[in-house]
Amino acid sequence: MSDEAATATTAAEAPAAEPLPHGLGASLPHADARAKTEGTFPYAADLWAEGLLWAAVLRSPHAHARIVSIDTTHARAMPGVRAVVTHEDVPGTSRHGRGTPDRPVFASEVVRHHGEPIAAVAADHPDTARMAAAAVIVEYEPLDPVTDPERAFEAGPLHPDGNLIRHIPLRHGDPDAAGEIVVEGLYRIGRQDPAPIGAEAGLAVPRPDGGVELYLASTDPHSDRNTAAACFGLPADRVKIVVTGVPGATADREDQGFQLPLGLLALRTGCPVKLAASREESFLGHAHRHPTLLRYRHHADAEGRLVKVEAQILLDAGAYADTSADALAAAVSFACGPYVVPNAFIEGWAVRTNNPPSGHVRGEGAMQVCAAYEAQMDKLARKLGLDPADVRLRNVLATGDVLPIGQTVTCPAPVAELLQAVRDFPLPSLPKDGPEEDWLLPGGPEGAGEPAAVRRGVGYALGMVHMLGAEGTDEVSTATVRVHDGVATVLCAAVESGQGFTTLARQIVQETLGIDEVHVAPVDTDQPPAGPGCRGRHTWVSGGAVERAAKMVRTQLLQPLAHKFGMSTELLQITDGKITSYDGVLSTTVSEALEGKELWATAQCRPHPTEPLDGAGQGDAFVGLAFCAIRAVVDVDVELGSVRVVELAVAQDVGRVLNPAQLAARIEGGVTQGVGIALTENLRTPRGLIRHPDLTGYALPTALDAPDIRIVKLVEERDVVAPFGAKPVSAVPVVTSPAAIASAVRAATGRPVNRLPIRPQAAVVNAR
Known about the structure:
Helix content: 10-25%
Largest sheet: 7 strands, mixed
Mean pLDDT: 90
Low-confidence stretches: 1-17
Strand content: 25-35%
Distance between the termini: 68 Å
Structural class: alpha+beta
């Protein structure tokens, strides 16, 4: 028999096509993956409208200055300019803000940070708009900026609301408790930019009723709609936000100070207005991670068990409050980490400065304290002469333990299991002696160092984050599921920002109703609110609402069949598109049962309430917690101070795996973001001025910087209060990986490494 005959197969003999992924637990691909890959997916920057005008914003070149005068005469007189707006043209509320509405739409008397909006222009060409914005003459009286958050306590008020945004004094246990072993440390965390893959862009279209529609990559459309309506002096029902494709989001995606001038210009001109921010404007406009100063003192007994933790945490909120109060609550609450600490005394402050505004970035508050308390655990291990992993294992938190805020951990907390998993995972092999090309030096393939100067280090970190909002936040989401002609449609205002909600919604409906074809409708504010897309909310709250609505439709579908056969709907099941009864008497397909019917249901999901922290930092403030353990392996050139992350082994508490491929991608993305925090990402702001606001000066990790990421264990211990038992997965690796990398660098060099990102001089050892 010929080789060709041996390998040939007939159509009848060909293997059956693989079934498409289906339902929860399957790796269902994103519905928009093909369009995004081919470049045909519509983002806000791609939008167009008849009679379109272009917008540009004039921003302050100063970090702190008094505005003496604003002259728009020359800008208004330029050919092609249709409108110029300043603070005098805001018809409604002049302040806005994600958490605390303390930020002006346009600066009027005082500029409080570099890049603050002063005026906005609409013109018939983008170049004309930019030139007209530059033609607005602003006379400034520069003031001395307050850029050191410690100075903010004594400095004069930078804002009518004062410099102190929030102070949390946490008191837990005996203040006189002391341990035989005491370690102290001072730590600094730099300013990280969320650096979305696509800069802000939007389109505002005036409506015949005097309202306006905003087409934006918003991650919280209803909140943005309410803010815009108040600013425009309009009722909320005359402002509509339509969510366009979101080009990546690891924070609140849209700066409201970007949205509001856009809508004002559309209302003023009566024409559609588009604004596409440059990368520099993006850096100047949106909020960043809070730079943080942390002082710690850990007490332990001779066996390495923690007795008391004392800490001072100072968050630099920048010029405006934004969500700094929430970030401080997370930082103070998790200041001791996922460890049992019988006595804790934490002082936390968030203050205003003249630095760029800080706000919600993935893992806010928790990431900063993780870097500090894990450094303290390394110091404790070194002083006791113990293995760093052993010291951590002696202190790990478990279900039933009490947090320093007084809240009992009722959710699964398999912290010891996670740490043991990464500890036991085989270490990567050492580089072999051989040709230079076989050795990947720190600094990349063209690293300038010598192999003899490279030392390997292994470090550990444990991290934790809270899920959903905190301190009494009313978490609620609404969803509708409709079935018509055998096709299901989900309507929910949960924005798909890359976290995979639309895929999850399809899986839920497939699982519940046995329908293959499921569509998720585009999001706008005509739908009921679903809340912001942060802290994994939509997996829990919006996913829960979709599940409840789908189950209500399932009951509508099954009731006629159950009644016909004299049984309850609970005795019927839907599997692989078939409806069967427990005894086999009934067997039909979902499509047959749906024929000629249109079914729909709307449902809400609202987790159990929480409460604010009291005057001693105590309270049941969080709905649930998620945990992660990471072991980092690094190579450090101790002469040059360059660091190469060789491998990150991750074990994570996920509750339940709903989409394996999507979950792995979220973990890997979070870990890689943490690599940037640890080694390269630092938005420098000398005297409050952003230096190099571009992706050349701000060094994001690339594919060459990404290490081998080994997901060694996913603990599926379901959280009984969460829909499906699942926990959000992307924030906690961001929190944990920078601390693990710093721990590994400490192990390689013996240096304290008390600052992130790690500077080369911190990794240099003066010996060879």
